[in-house]
Amino acid sequence: MSEVRFRDSIFARLVVWAMLVSVGVTLLLWAVTYTTLDRSSRAALVRAVDVDLAGMADIHASGGQGELAKRIEDRLALATDDGNASHYLVADNAGQRITGDIAVWPKLDARLSEAGYITLSGNVPAYARATQLAPDLKLLVAREYGYDSALARRISWAFLAAGGLAAAVVGLLGRWRANRLARRVGRINRAFREPDQPSLEALEEGSAETDEIGELTRHTSEALAHLRRMVGAHRETTDQVAHELRTPLMHLDNRLVKALAKAQDEDDRRLLSDARAEIRHVIALLESLLDIATSEARKGDRLGLSPVNLSQLVNRIGELYADSAEDSGHVFTRSIMPGITCQGEEMQLTRLITNLLDNAFKYVPAGGTVRLSLEQGPTLSVSDNGPGVPEDERDHIFDRFRRGRSNIQAGESGRRHSAGLGLALARAIAERHRLTLNLVPSPKGASFVVAPETKS
Q1: Entry pTM
Q2: Where does the Histidine kinase domain start and stop, copy by copy (predicted)?
Q3: CA angle 295-346-316, nearest 5°?
Q4: What value does the mean pLDDT take over residues 308-325?
């Protein structure tokens, strides 16, 4: 199993959601701010034009057309502080200009005191209102609003920039915190994957935090420490049981050897030899069961593993079986890629390979072919052209005490003392090394493949 990539991490998704929420809130606030500014500036624009128009109408009413023209010239000569200049036009009913700086009367009805947005010369946008001052005299007051729009845009862009910066800060801080949380969770995952001493020590260092992950780390550390104690106690107990059983059996075997040396009758010698064979079978059975239990208890545990030149190991084993294959009348072929290494225990890997080869030679009659191959991966396969595994036994071929059926007479004696633990032990050793052992389909015979576990 590989490390979780950041983009697949739940913390990464939380950071992305936080950034999306920040961006969403920023856009919402920007929309509200822009709308509010736009409405306020437009209302102020309308109010300014109406007040100016009312003032000009009062000037005309009190001072006449001459006074109105003078006041318009005065106002046009003044520079505005807000950047939105006012413009005026006094014209007759035909639209001919009398005074003011607007050249052409727009499409606004003075009799209705109509207002609207117009474009002045030079493509300057403005808001204007017209009114009828006298039967043959009308007034237009306009005010630019481009400065207000530009100001609103600048404020909006500043708001968006600040919001984007805030989202970026949230993302950076969130990623920093997410990476820290991911490293803390990663220590827990590594301790489960590789419960060796360095992983447990790293786990204890991370248990000082007082938050939820710190509490989870403490519970994980305590649970794994308890599990290691239980596994150690189990291993010690099985070793003691094995010793207590193996010792008297070996003593009994020695007594049988002495009795066999003294026996004169051929029947007695045969019975004593059979008894010795049964004792050795029981010892081998006991050792196999202990090896299976030990391998299963240490499944995935990297402690005690070291680099093994698998190509050299398989070559050595292959050479030994090549000699015995000639004696048994089998054809033994090898295809071993050089330079393949792996982390493992050499003795255990040796037992895995020899169990598979023993199983193949046991069930393949003389004249049959056994093939041993090693490829990059590492992928090891042992296949043959023998009778194969019956369909109803394929799902249970790796079960303990499961012995295959065959009608080949030559193999019956070889299987008489088989306990059915060879393939079970081989699979347990494979899993201890994070490998898989499977019976794969083949056109003829049986084919067993050892390959790395599929990463998830």
Answers
A1: 0.46
A2: 240-456
A3: 135
A4: 86
**Residues near 112 by beta carbon (within 8 Å), at least 6 away in sequence:** none
pLDDT classification of 58: cutoffs 50, 70, 90? very high
Position 180 in a domain:
no
| Run of H or E residues at 193 | helix 146-193
Position 283 scores a pLDDT of 67
Q: How far apart are CA 423 and CA 292, in angstroms?
A: 10
Residue 267 burial by Cβ neighbours in a 10 Å radius (0-12, 13-18, 19+): exposed
pLDDT tens for residues 375-387? 888 888 888 888 8
Q: What is the CATH number of the domain that holds 411?
A: 3.30.565.10
Contact of 411 with 384, CB cutoff 8 Å: no
Same domain assignment for residues 279 and 373 = no
Count Cβ neighbours within 10 Å for each residue of 191-210 and write b for 16 or more, e otherwise.
beeebbeebbebbbebbeee
Residue 174 lies in a domain: no
How high is the pLDDT of residue 87?
A: 92
Q: What 3-state class would DSSP assign to 450? A: strand
List of residues 6+ apart from 329 with CB closer than 8 A: 366, 367
Q: What is the model's pLDDT at position 25?
A: 82
CATH number of domain containing 40: 3.30.450
Examine the fold and report which residue of 301, 319, 341 is the final residue of a domain before the chain moves on.
301
Tokens of 81: 């502080």
Q: Residue 91's beta-bridge partner residues?
A: 97, 138
Domains in the chain, number:
3
pLDDT digits (tens, 9 = 90+) for 9-55: 676 777 778 778 878 887 888 888 778 888 888 898 899 999 999 99
Q: Provide the domain limits for residue 221.
A: 199-301
Closest CA to 303 of 199, 225, 377, 187: 199
